[in-house]
């Protein structure tokens, strides 16, 4: 495991480490033994991940003498819902979860967000460990403590901040991930370059194709740089009272597209974020805040790796004309958690690598970029 690296998240008494590398899943047992002396873990995972990687997680726990059970849920965004949360809570209580047990979220962002939220509310709070198995969850969702579910009103509207005790990002697990899912995660990697690190964006233009093709060194580097950026922001603004909203670049638009397409397989979260980042740059250009060439460059790189960048790229877009109409999308945005005094908040850019937060965006301009998309 020569290439493994560790990134600390500085959060005082709730500080934790992110281990990144091929094979770090084998540290699960020792990690749980060190952090949870009671020696019991409840693994939450989905059917796809269980078939591929659950045995490896169990073996590590068993080798460390950790008693454990596994709860296997349906895959997909639909599981971030009240019915599946209720099912998961029942299973955790059936297993007589105790406060000193470890919940282990083994899966992508859906499992991490759902299991993290279940851990936050079970018996008023049980600690948990993230073992992210998608690129998206390794670079983003496993770090920072945002947990929750979607509701009929919109994306991530019920949840809690609940930090994990440990994150094990095993990049070898990405080798079983479908290409479309990998690309969706790559959108969140691009986000870190666009929002605050122009050098990283340059690096992605040079190394992104190799990363997508499977280069392990490039994957470790991309996960390391992404979570280092996220850890810095989260340690300064854990509860999103300011700077953390930068991590929402592309999400005001993206979440509206996800809601409009029913939180289903037509549009993955990362795909919505890619379209949303393209629109955030278009909006910045329209408002005279950002040079047009930066918007072109951002869009070109995402399209070049195979990400959707326009509403028309969404599967079955032609049948969704009413749902994807600008007025319908703007209506979804009204539920965004960044709304303040009834006003939408946007993350815009002065250039690649320099994003900022603003409420000063005329709705006509938002409508215009959506019409043009
Ligand atoms: N909490 C946060 O800070 C945060 C950040 C970004 C995104 N998110 C959330 O994350 C979710 C998206 O996460 P995601 O993109 O990981 O999706 P996901 O969890 O649905 O996983 C994608 C698919 O890949 C499968 N899978 C997972 N790992 C695999 C592997 N190693 N091999 C083969 N298949 C595998 C899953 O079963 C699923 O079908 C969204 O709900 C989004 O809102 C949260
Ligand atoms: O960690 C954060 O903060 C983020 O905004 C990361 C986003 O990529 C992620 O999709 C997050 O779940 C969005 O949060 P929300 O508060 O807009 O629901
Ligand atoms: Zn996101």
Give the helix/strand class.
alpha/beta
Instruction: Give the overall average pLDDT.
Output: 97
End-to-end distance: 45 Å
How many whole angstroms does the radius of gyration measure? 20 Å
Per DSSP, the total helix count is 13
- In total, the number of domains comes to 2
Any guess at the CATH architecture of the largest domain? Up-down Bundle
H/E element order: EEHEHEHEHEHEEEHHHHHHHEEH
Low-confidence stretches: none
In the CATH scheme, the class of the largest domain would be Mainly Alpha
Largest beta-sheet characterization: 7 strands, mixed
Helix content range = 40-55%
The fold-level CATH name of the largest domain is: Dehydroquinate synthase-like, alpha domain
- Assign the CATH superfamily of the largest domain: Dehydroquinate synthase-like - alpha domain
Shape verdict: globular
Strand order of the largest sheet: 1-2-9-6-5-3-4
